[in-house]
User: Fold this.
Amino acid sequence: MTAFLQSGIFLLFALMSLFMIATATQAGFAVHGVIILIASLLAFVTTLGRLKPATNGGWILQDHSNGGYDDAVIKAGLIATVFWGVVGMLVGVVIAAQLSFPVLNLGSEYTSFGRLRPLHTSGVIFAFGGNALIMTSFWVVQRTCRTRLFAPDLAWFVFWGYQLFIVLAATGYVMGITQSREYAEPEWYVDLWLTVVWVAYLAVFVGTIAKRREPHIYVANWFYLAFIITIAMLHIVNNLAVPAGFGPKSYSLFSGVQDALTQWWYGHNAVGFFLTAGFLGMMYYFVPKQANRPVYSYRLSIVHFWSLIFLYIWAGPHHLHYTALPDWAQTLGMVFSIMLWMPSWGGMINGLMTLEGAWDKIRTDPIIRMYVASLAFYGMSTFEGPLMSIRSVNGLSHYTDWTIGHVHSGALGWVGMVSFASIYFLAPRLFGASRVYSLRMINWHFWLAMAGITLYTASMWVAGIMQGLMWREFNAEGYLVYAFAEVVAAMHPYYLIRLLGGVLYLLGAVMMAYNVWMTARGRIRNEAPLDAGQPYNPDQDRPHQDKPLAPVSAGAQPAAAE
Assistant:
């Protein structure tokens, strides 16, 4: 794509945004038009600023990669991941406080729990988690394929396009622009934009694999690819809608129980492929690299991949027990959920056993400690999930805070910890430092996060089971013993404990942001030695020295590190 064609596309978007502003019948739609206009003009000016004369005439865009890997976009992704992580977790603490002290809703619709709750979930899942997946996938695919990113400018479009999606979604939630679908709240025009960005992401990732110089495709890339393709399919089908004119309102193509099934086919597989498969790709690269050990069993990783991919897609109906969904569909979701125990624990065992012969690193390396904790939480939450899918257990757990505790044990423990550890792994490499600013601050982050997770999940498990039991308590005459208000009042102390857990987890994330910031500035804290494995050599990840993960053959396993 020529520079002038890119500039023309940005101008076209600017004109479309002007049309949005001019025809808007709602203030929120006009605000989104202004945001798109600003983004389009910035992209247009930036593109023109990168133009330089070509040797054979015409104009070309400057290439700032210096012939190496395209790490600038990854660096931007790391900064965005840290920023959105802190923002998303801060909003989570605010809404947890609102449940304990409703006055904190401030009497405004813009700061109410109903508006801020999807802001929190999308912030931590798609803004924090999505940026973590995009930037690590760009790092991994280049190193394991021994080649630069396909279409680096398109990779930058993916990054900035995804940030625009996050801003449009977040501002839409606060202004009440939502289609009220769990994990899929943005309206039709934001969904269309995300589809364009996601197709570009797929093109960059697949294009990089296609032009690889390493014959073997390492298993981490299989997990990343499954995540990208499946999320695209889920997003398109779940968000099929008919716009109600040119404005921020649409109606789903589905209705009734079909709509519910589509929603939870999407909802559960968003967890399965966005929050599981993608982060497993992260685990299969960074755990061996940080431990300086080969993957315990490469063949097990392949079995893990194919069994997880096949089974997970069928598990969604377990969210609809005791509903109008046919019993056979409910049973199908339950059976496939229980079968997920096998591949999930296979992946956990594979990750933990990668440390065989290097278990002492847990004591000396806080980054490895985070990876091990994330794998432990992955195993625990993937045991608890199938358990809760059993119809009789679901009758007690559904609609209670037990589900909240389960989700956060996976989100805070598995997704959060593996992301934090990968950020600490990448920060010195991306900013050219010898190591992270402070290893002891990583240690403090680990223990703050663990304390926060423990308080959060334990309080929600106890509260949820109590909630479920109180809801189904009948007296001798067959009447409910507890009024709904009494159940809510009984939850208050547990909500306070959850709030404390969230604050501790947020403090750890703020500490990480400071640690990364100081690392980017080239600072190294003067502190008592804490061995974190081999010192990092900034030259080791240069293309001519980076040794790829070798293919499996004749019993051999891919090497874990240079």
Remarks:
- The CA atoms of residues 549 and 558 lie 5 Å apart.
- The radius of gyration is 24 Å.
- Residues 540-562 have pLDDT under 50 and may be disordered.
